[in-house]
Structure of Response regulatory domain-containing protein:
Amino acid sequence: MTIRILPAVGDPDAAHSLGGLLGQLPGAEPSAPVGDSTLLLDTLASLAAASLEELPEVVLVHERIGPAPALELIREIALRFPAVGVVLVTADAGPALYSAAMDAGARGIAGIPLAYDELAARVQGAAQWATGVRRHLGAAATRSPPGPAASWSRSRAPRAGSAPP
């Protein structure tokens, strides 16, 4: 499975380091990093306008992205693009930030300094989650809603032990 990854990193040195590790992950297809939160949201919006399938499976948000704070950005991505798994890249991988990131909609946290095994596990987990969501959304889009007769007959059907209307 190919995993498309879009890193959002404002710091060029961090972007270079992250890009190097992403290039080593098996099945990873990293995009060029975007440098700020506005550009990230615009990029995701343009990809989503084309098709849900155009969105990356994983977005990596560096803790020092701006102008929007990282947790607000994660919340915005989770709300606007629910089929994208978000991983926060941060030096503070403590329980308080972990909880806040999960509440915002992140699928995981990768600690700085980045370690190959940890990054691979977080990216893989977020990608699997995104694939499941996309499968669910695709199945929902292909099902047709019940017609008025089906809705009416279910709501008017007698319940066990009750008299017919």
Remarks:
- The chain has six helices and five strands.
- The two ends are 54 Å apart (CA to CA).
